[in-house]
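dude i think i finally got it to work??
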Amino acid sequence: MPEQPQHHTLSVLVENKAGVLARVANLFSRRGFNIYSLAVAPTDDERFSRITIVVDVESAPLEQITKQLFKLINVVKISELHPDDSVERELMLATVKAVAGARSEIIELMDVFGGKIIDVGHGEVTVMLAGAPDGIDACEDLMRAYGIIELQRTGRVALPKLERLAPRLRTVAAKSA
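look at this
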């Protein structure tokens, strides 16, 4: 069985300026680094954007990738997001053949995965699903049986998981009189 590519997710905070994404993509292209997924959007602070890059570390060591990214002037911060310590999501839109007998099966499949039918035609439907990449992959595989006409996925976005431990209560030592 062929070995699966080893992917790592990088969250790159950059200055929100024209051309930054092009410079990041150009860096990967020049160095021959394989990008598996790329998503970018402004953050809550309009001065910055967050680029989520899923890279194949078989094409280049992760350390080399981060060193090259830090050389770019507009890069502010780079964080590696381990799958166990982060929340990853992706969006899929797909137009699927939906003949009369299959339409109810597709609706049921969307219910199981938490997706929605967002457009309906005479012989096809367009579905939307947002979720973890593995769930999107599973749904996409099942949809192939109906005949995918068009498919678009956003690429992964990710953030670190939140701390779940309750803050420790500090004990106050009693003053001795």
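The first helix runs from residue 20 to 31.
im so relieved honestly
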